[in-house]
Design a protein that fits this description.
The protein has one domain. The protein contains 4 helices and 8 strands; from the N terminus they run ββββααββαββα. It has helices at about 85-100, 120-130, 145-160, 180-185, and strands spanning about 35-45, 50-60, 65-70, 80-85, 130-135, 140-145, 160-165, 170-175. The strands form 3 sheets. The protein has a 4-stranded antiparallel beta sheet. The protein has a two-stranded antiparallel ribbon with strand order 5-6.
Length: about 190
């Protein structure tokens, strides 16, 4: 006779499934689409954090630059909205005016979405490209390199002459004969 177990089966634990925010559609208007001109990865801000972030830079028909968080190889949700450089510039303005250090929280205002990771992940991107640097005096504070911020924007606008395939992420040069048409389109007023 088989011995009857007095333990009950543990019910299955269901993991909450959250749709990937990285695949969300852009929030650009249909008549002013954002064209991706650069894609790269950046380490996270904390030396203890694992993984890296993937981000893209885009430009619209009015030559406005945007950044989009696209991926995170470890934990932490984020918003995949396109954030205008002009909104980032407003967040940096106090540091530009006063030369004071900032924290990643300064970038919360640049996002429509209120994900807790947005500001820190954006700060990590800006640090990776040299716009921000860790403060030697205060932990969690960042120093702005205003010259690099301006240089990076100029460099990205020059990259508008290349296109990134949205499916394969391969970079393709735009043929020289199309340069004038593309520049005219980019420089058209809204």
């Amino acid at each position: 006779m088989a011995k009857k177990s007095n333990t009950t089966a543990t019910p299955a634990i269901f993991k909450r499934v959250v749709p990937s925010l990285a695949l969300a559609p852009t929030d650009a208007a249909a008549d002013n689409p954002i064209r991706r001109v650069h894609k790269a990865q950046a380490p996270k801000l904390s030396a203890k954090a694992e993984g890296c972030l993937t981000y893209a830079i885009g430009i619209d028909n009015a030559a406005c630059l945007y950044v989009q968080l696209q991926g995170n190889t470890s934990g932490g949700l984020f918003s995949a909205e396109w954030v205008r450089f002009s909104d980032i510039d407003r967040c940096l303005q106090q540091s530009l005016d006063t030369r004071e250090q900032i924290t990643s929280g300064a970038f919360r205002a640049a996002f429509k979405s209120k994900s807790q990771n947005n500001a820190g992940f954006l700060a990590a991107v800006l640090k990776a490209v040299g716009v921000l640097a860790s403060s030697p005096e205060k932990a969690h504070h960042l120093q702005l390199n205003a010259e690099q911020w301006r240089y990076w924007q100029t460099e990205l606008r020059q990259r508008a002459n290349t296109a990134v395939d949205p499916v394969t992420s391969e970079v393709h040069e735009i043929p020289a004969e199309d340069d004038d048409a593309i520049l005219n389109q980019l420089l058209q007023p809204r």
